[in-house]
Amino acid sequence: MELSEEIAARRAGTGDPEALVGEFRRTAVLVPTVGEDQVMSGVHGGVRWIFAFTDEAALARFALARGEATDRPWDYAAILGARLLDVVVPAQNGPAGVAVNVADEDGSMLFPPAPGIVPEAVAVPGPDDGEDV
């Protein structure tokens, strides 16, 4: 299944979380860049969310939702999901995750800084991990 299909299945309650993470890791996503070697991100709930998109149309919807001019091109990089989770997320200052297709109400998905998604060294344990958050 493609990443968009895995996201849809998970949002419908029928998808397998491990299959979703696996597909994300194998998929090249589009990540808007700001300046040299910086990915576009936002902070919500104490977590830095790196924006990623499954295709140029999803990236364009995000630009429109932000009120950006549609006649100017956006710089972006195609980055393998595994590289985002294993290299880019740990390079952030503090907890970080990946927000996919955030402008698509029915097609977005978050990959939080949780054990099993990001490297153990940067994962934030949740209440079910035996530690208080």
TrEMBL record:
<dbReference type="InterPro" id="IPR009839">
    <property type="entry name" value="SseB_N"/>
</dbReference>
<dbReference type="Pfam" id="PF07179">
    <property type="entry name" value="SseB"/>
</dbReference>
<feature type="domain" description="SseB protein N-terminal">
    <location>
        <begin position="7"/>
        <end position="107"/>
    </location>
</feature>
<protein>
    <submittedName>
        <fullName>SseB protein N-terminal domain-containing protein</fullName>
    </submittedName>
</protein>
